[in-house]
Design goal:
By secondary structure, the chain is an alpha+beta fold. The chain has 5 helices and 7 strands; from the N terminus they run αβββαββαββαα. The chain is globular and about 50 Å long.
């Protein structure tokens, strides 16, 4: 174990309380913390949480405070109003010693998306996508639309942010953009 590794493993890591959405200070290089991440319990439509030692590389939400022009307080079905319904996108790098890497073999990254709704009676849709490398992490954030795939605006923003902290993501993201 190198000196750096030792340092890494013994640093005090304050427990970050569950935050929705996670706060990211753009002026700080992200550090490893214990994050509480929302998880959807498959099949039961129940939201639970998991704790993972990770650093948040990028976060973006498509939420806007101002409603689009829609009748009534809440947007009707299929009407897109990002004050009513929006997406949160987070990209985490899992700490090399976190058990999550063993239970999800080689999962270096977690791509985490939440389709959120403020509308009474609607619920959030959570996806937790482990990825062994940067290319997979970017693919996990692809959204199918009209028969092809694309990255949503918050996904692109989160990946641009992450590119500033993670060379693998930077490389894979810029390769994707020229392709
Ligand atoms: Zn609205």
């Amino acid at each position: 174990m190198s000196h750096e590794d030792m340092q890494d493993a013994t640093d005090t890591e304050p427990l970050i309380a569950a935050e929705n959405p996670p706060h990211m200070d753009e002026n700080d290089v992200p550090m490893f913390h214990l994050w509480t991440i929302d998880v959807e319990d498959d099949g039961k439509s129940m939201i639970t949480t998991m704790v993972v030692r990770a650093r948040l590389l990028g976060f973006s939400a498509s939420h806007v405070p101002r409603h689009k022009d829609h009748e009534g307080e809440w947007a009707p079905r299929r009407f897109q109003c990002p004050a009513c319904r929006w997406i949160d996108v987070a990209l985490y790098e899992v700490h090399k010693d976190d058990p999550y890497r063993r239970t999800n073999p080689g999962a270096r990254y977690i791509a985490h998306t939440v389709g959120r709704s403020d509308i009474p009676g609607e619920r959030d849709f959570i996806r937790v996508m482990p990825a062994t490398n940067a290319t997979m992490a970017i693919e996990a954030l692809n959204t199918p639309q009209h028969g092809s795939v694309h990255l949503t605006v918050p996904a692109r923003t989160a990946l641009s942010q992450a590119s500033g902290y993670d060379e693998q993501i930077a490389k894979a993201f810029s390769n994707r953009r020229v392709a």
